[in-house]
Design a protein that fits this description.
9 strands, 434 Repressor (Amino-terminal Domain), 9 helices, 2 domains, five-stranded mixed beta sheet, globular, about 240 residues
């Protein structure tokens, strides 16, 4: 890991368009951002013009905007500096879920959705985090579920709606408690072009055929992160297009 002095000497090229868009979204002018990032207005002007800045300055500006430094970095430079095992990873932007309903809308529209975290969960937030996981977990779609129901659900529409309303209420309460402890729920999705597993009744397992066609499969990510961030960046491995 580079020392702070090494970080200060290394340079990066800002993505001026992304930087300006993020500043505007935060309702800040250049003077506001400079003050919050503890840098000069001239530094902000140079960064928004696409001139190189050191990594320490980039970290300060990104923190002031509530994002990670990669979010304000030129894509070409980011790809060049990535480790060999990271260059094939796809960057997925995760945005804060504004409500339990919006969280469920994104998560349940996927073929599979995973739940994780990238923030320390202190003692005061543990109960709320566990409650959210317990409530949300069973509703997250899984590409290859262990329990197979070939008859479909027998629930009537009214019961499904009532279950959804109860779930939203539980998630809303948990999300509010987490926000009080500086933790937010972020959500995002991406599409991978893969061979979708099929359930083999005879073998009793999920599998793919050798010459099976590839198709778009939608994956989701629900992640607990710092409430001060405007977005999180997840890096995921996707299949290369087979042609």
């Amino acid at each position: 890991m580079a020392s702070q002095s090494d970080t200060g000497r290394r340079k990066m090229t800002p993505n001026s368009k992304a930087l300006i868009e993020l500043r505007t979204k935060c309702a800040m002018n250049q003077e506001d951002l400079a003050g919050r990032a503890k840098v000069s207005v001239r530094t902000i002007q140079r960064a928004e013009a696409g001139n190189q800045i050191d990594l320490q300055t980039a970290q300060q500006i990104a923190t002031a905007l509530g994002v990670v430094p990669d979010a304000i970095r030129m894509d070409e430079e980011l790809q060049r500096d990535q480790a060999p095992d990271e260059k094939d990873l796809t960057r997925v932007t995760l945005l804060p879920a504004r409500s339990a309903r919006s969280l469920l809308d994104v998560a349940t529209a996927c073929d599979e959705c995973r739940l994780d975290h990238e923030v320390d969960i202190g003692p005061g937030a543990i109960d709320a985090a566990i409650e959210l996981c317990d409530a949300l977990g069973p509703f997250l779609p899984v590409l290859c579920p262990e329990d197979i129901n070939f008859n479909g659900s027998s629930d009537d529409p009214a019961k499904k709606l009532k279950d959804r309303i109860r779930l939203e209420a539980t998630l809303s309460a948990s999300m509010e408690q987490l926000r009080e402890h500086g933790i937010a729920v972020f959500v995002g999705s991406y599409v991978d072009f893969i061979q979708r597993p099929r359930y083999d009744i005879d073998e009793g397992c999920w599998s793919t055929r050798v010459n099976q066609k590839h198709e778009d499969v939608k994956f989701g990510i629900v992640r607990l992160g710092p409430a001060s961030s405007l977005q999180l960046i997840a890096r995921v491995k996707t299949e290369p297009i087979p042609f």
